[in-house]
Design brief:
Protein name: Anti-sigma-W factor RsiW
Mean pLDDT: 80
Distance between the termini: 108 Å
Keywords: Membrane, Transmembrane, Transmembrane helix
Structural class: mainly alpha
Helix content: over 70%
Shape: rod-shaped
Pfam family, one: zf-HC2
Low-confidence stretches: none
Family: Belongs to the zinc-associated anti-sigma factor (ZAS) superfamily. Anti-sigma-W factor family.
Strand content: under 5%
Bound molecules: zinc ion
Radius of gyration: 46 Å
Number of helices: 5
Length: about 160
């Protein structure tokens, strides 16, 4: 009766046998069709398994990478949360302050420009139509302009303080 080496075939494929054992398996396979068929089956199974494992490995790697990146993002985010919140509040405060002072300044400058334009128009109109009022118009213009500049300077000083 022939002694089959079925239980040594997978060890043979995995390269776990020593030189003598390997030689014995190879000699036996050459003569035994049953073990040869089994070895081929094992080879196919092994390559199927390797392919399946290879196919599974990519998503597994991906998952690990995704989890790693999430962890890497989460940990510093949690650690810097307080700092980030403080920074955000600071930016927000400065932003609101800048916006308010800016809009006030813009309004004031816009108003001054409109006032100046109106003054120039009114002055020229008055000067052309009523020459008598020329002196008064100029003085009035200067007074209003001075008042505007004074209020602007006061506002700038208030903003600075
Ligand atoms: Zn055999």
């Amino acid at each position: 009766m022939i002694e089959h080496l079925e239980d040594q075939l997978s060890a043979y494929l995995d390269g776990e046998l020593n030189a003598d054992e390997r030689q014995r398996v190879e000699d036996h396979i050459e003569e035994c069709e049953s073990c040869q068929a089994l070895l081929e089956d094992l080879l196919v199974m092994q390559s199927d398994l390797a392919q399946t494992f290879h196919r599974m490995q990519a998503p597994a790697h991906l998952e690990v990478r995704v989890l790693q990146s999430i962890a890497e993002e989460k940990i510093p985010a949690a650690a810097e949360k307080g700092w980030a919140f403080g920074f955000l509040m600071m930016v927000l405060t400065f932003g609101v302050f800048w916006f308010l002072s800016g809009s006030v300044l813009v309004k004031l400058i816009h108003g001054l420009l409109k006032l100046t334009a109106a003054m120039v128009y009114a002055a020229s109109h008055f000067i052309l139509s009523v020459p008598v009022l020329t002196g008064l118009t100029v003085v009035l213009s200067l007074v209003i302009l001075a008042a505007s500049v004074y209020s602007l300077r006061r506002l700038l000083q208030t903003t600075a303080n």
